[in-house]
Every structure is written in structure tokens, then in C-alpha cells.
Design goal:
By secondary structure, the protein is mainly beta. The chain is 4% helix and 57% strand. The two termini are 30 Å apart.
């Protein structure tokens, strides 16, 4: 109960450190007094950050946060992000968020939140050579979160969103381009979703034990109305073990499935709601989002993390997975590890990708900063006998999972 009480105080967001010390009561030999020591956070915070990642590459963000609005424990936050993956194209992502959070909704232990967001992004479309389009998203999200147990949380959320897919870089004709599944135009999506999570990682930023599991389900359209009707579910599981010489073995599996229903059965799930694979957090050795969009996702990862010297850490890993256009496309032959380059070239979209690799980085108070290299065990060979790239480097803050 002391640990639960400590976590409840931290969950207010008003304190950065909470220590509860038991002390024998001077008035009652049976009773025990509790001394609670806290370090208060700054109630107002103005932040600016410059970063680099494999998704946005160059990124600039800023925000304003008030943790105790009107001395009520409520939180208000404004955030903005500018990103560019290619300076020749200028900004390729612009996003703004406005959020209001009440950690004692209706006088109960419920966390209620309202979020308004808008984003404009230049998105690559790999089914067309050098294809790109602009994706605009403007929406409002209402959510309620309940701590069922100390490490188990349930979140319910309703989202109303306007999405506009516009300005494809190629001459697009829906009647002629039957093989291109991109739905150009504006949609209104209304959805209800829930997330059930259990996070028992120890410690949080650099786990050396425990587990983390998550189930997320979303229903869009149907009784909620809107222009699209689809269901989407995603399952995540990770486990961490201490091993020899202070190393840690980390295991992870992730799967997702989406399908359209009703009036949307023929046109399918919108591309921006499908699954993608490839990149620093899924299959290293490939570009971010290189595979997909797909209605079915399957990923598995194994890592061994170890200390080298001073604050320098290393990692070895095996990644596998893919995003299939349809769950019906999955076949047993897709899971072969060793195939010829010529055969793999014909099956590159549907075959499971396998990579192995090494990484090195440095420890920080918020986890490691890593540079990983993933090597592809399957490499396609073109008609001229030339093999594709053997792999690539990835830069990431924190672990892949």
C-alpha cells in the first residue's frame, strides 16, 4: 500500500520525487507514522527541443505546459513540431497539439483528457516511383483513463477526425489506376477505442526485468457514422530477463489486424490507418515504413543488451516480420529464412524479413542513445544480377522496444 500511495502522489504530475518513510509513533506503540517527503516540479514550463530521428530526420519542437491550472491539479499544454526529412523539400511535417487533462475527473480516480490536434505531412507512397502526397489531419480526442491496478490501466477514447489526402505527385486517375489503393479526397472518421495496458518494466527507461503488454482496439464508423467503416486491433508483448555478466535478454512480439466492413468493404481500410514495417523500432536494416501499407502485421524481436565500459552499452539483435496487404496473403513459405536472391526478388512484398545486427550507444538518465546496424539475411537480386543493399544504420533514443 505504501508503494501504491507513492505512485498515486506521483501520478498527480505535481511532484518529481516522492519518498515515504515509516517512523514509530511516539503516542502509540502499535501505530506507525508515515513521513512523506516530496520534491515539487515547476508548475509552468516552456520548452524548446532540437532533434534528429530516422523518421523526421531534422526536428524542432516547442511547447508550454502548466501542471496546476487554477490551482486545481489540472494540466494544460500546447505543443508544436516542425520536421523535415529532406531540406530540399522544406518542411515535410508540421503538427500542433492543445491538451487539457483533469486527473480527478468527476471527483473520482479517473484521468480525463481533451486533445485537439492538427497535422500536415508529406508522405512517401512507395507503390509509385518517387510518389508522394500530402496528408492533413485535424481532430479532437476525448479520453478517460482508469488505473485498475498499480501497473494496469484502461483507457477509453472517442475521436472525431477530418482527414484530407491531397496533391499526389503523379497524375492520378481512380478509374485508370486500379492497382493504386490510395483514396484521394477528404474523409470524416469517428471512432471509439480502448487500450488495456500492463507495464511492469523495471526500471522503466532501461528495463532489466519485468514485462510490458498492451491490447488496443478501435472501431471506426458503424453506429458512429462518418465516411469509413473499419475495425482495428493491435497486440504487443515484451519480456525482459537478466542473464550472464549483467546482460539483459529482451523479447518482443507485435501483431495487428484491420478490416473494413459495411459500405467500406470494397474500398478497404484507409492507407493512413494501415500497418507498416521496417525501421529502427520494427525491422532494422530496412527503411522506416518500407513494407506496407497492410491490413495484417506480424513482428518478433530478440535482443541481448550488455554493458561495455563506462557509460557505453552494446546490443545484438534479431528482427523479423512483415506487413501483408491482406491476412489471406500469408503463407507458410513466407517464413523461409534462406532463399535465393532471385526468388526473394519475386516475393519481396510477401516474404518475412529477417535481419541480424549490432548496436552501440551511451547511457543517459532517460535511457540509452543508440546507433544500430541491421544486416539483411534475405537480399533480392535484380535481372542484371545486382544485389540490393545489405542493410543500413539507425539512430534511436531509447530501446527498440
Amino acid at each position: 500500500k505504501m508503494v501504491d500511495s507513492q505512485q498515486n502522489v506521483l501520478d498527480t504530475g505535481l511532484f518529481k520525487d516522492v519518498v515515504i518513510e515509516p517512523k514509530a509513533s511516539e503516542a502509540d506503540s502499535v501505530a506507525v507514522d508515515l513521513i512523506v517527503k516530496v520534491k515539487e516540479r515547476k508548475m509552468r514550463e516552456l520548452s524548446f527541443r532540437v532533434g534528429y530521428g530516422t523518421l523526421d530526420e531534422a526536428r524542432l519542437s516547442g511547447g508550454w505546459l502548466h501542471r496546476n491550472l487554477w490551482n486545481s491539479g489540472r494540466t494544460a499544454e500546447i505543443r508544436g513540431t516542425l520536421g523535415s526529412r529532406d531540406f530540399n523539400k522544406g518542411l515535410t511535417r508540421v503538427r500542433g497539439d492543445l491538451a487539457f487533462t483533469d486527473r480527478g475527473l468527476f471527483g473520482r480516480r479517473l484521468v480525463g483528457a481533451i486533445g485537439i490536434y492538427g497535422q500536415e505531412a508529406l508522405v512517401e507512397y512507395k507503390e509509385v516511383e518517387n510518389g508522394e502526397y500530402t496528408l492533413d489531419r485535424l481532430g479532437i480526442n476525448l479520453s478517460v483513463k482508469k488505473n485498475i491496478l498499480r501497473i494496469t490501466k484502461l483507457t477509453l477514447a472517442y475521436t472525431h477526425e477530418i482527414v484530407d489526402v491531397r496533391d499526389p505527385s503523379w497524375d492520378f486517375d481512380e478509374d485508370e489506376d486500379e492497382d493504386i489503393r490510395l483514396q484521394v479526397g477528404q474523409d470524416i472518421n469517428r471512432s471509439l477505442g480502448f487500450i488495456l495496458s500492463r507495464d511492469a518494466r523495471r526500471p522503466f527507461f532501461d528495463p532489466r526485468g519485468g514485462s510490458n503488454s498492451r491490447v488496443a482496439a478501435q472501431r471506426t464508423g458503424g453506429i458512429f457514422g462518418g465516411d469509413n467503416n473499419f475495425n482495428k486491433i493491435a497486440l504487443t508483448w515484451a519480456r525482459y530477463f537478466k542473464w550472464y555478466w549483467g546482460s539483459v535478454v529482451a523479447l518482443s512480439t507485435r501483431t495487428g489486424y484491420a478490416y473494413a466492413f459495411g459500405a467500406s468493404r470494397d474500398k478497404g481500410v484507409p492507407e493512413y490507418e494501415k500497418f507498416y514495417a521496417g525501421g529502427s523500432a520494427t525491422i532494422r536494416g530496412y527503411d522506416d515504413g518500407e513494407f506496407g501499407p497492410g491490413d495484417f502485421l506480424l513482428l518478433a524481436n530478440v535482443e541481448m543488451r550488455f554493458h561495455l565500459f563506462w557509460r557505453v552499452a552494446g546490443v545484438t539483435f534479431i528482427d523479423m516480420g512483415n506487413a501483408w496487404q491482406s491476412i489471406d496473403d500469408v503463407e507458410g513459405s513466407d517464413f523461409k529464412v534462406f532463399v535465393s536472391g532471385e526468388d526473394y526478388a519475386l516475393r519481396r512484398d510477401t516474404d518475412v524479413k529477417y535481419t541480424i545486427g549490432l548496436g552501440i550507444g551511451t547511457q543517459t538518465p532517460v535511457g540509452p542513445i543508440m546507433i544500430d546496424y541491421g544486416y539483411r539475411l534475405k537480399r533480392a537480386v535484380d535481372e542484371e544480377g545486382k544485389k540490393e543493399s545489405p542493410g543500413r544504420f539507425h539512430f534511436l533514443v531509447g530501446h527498440a522496444f
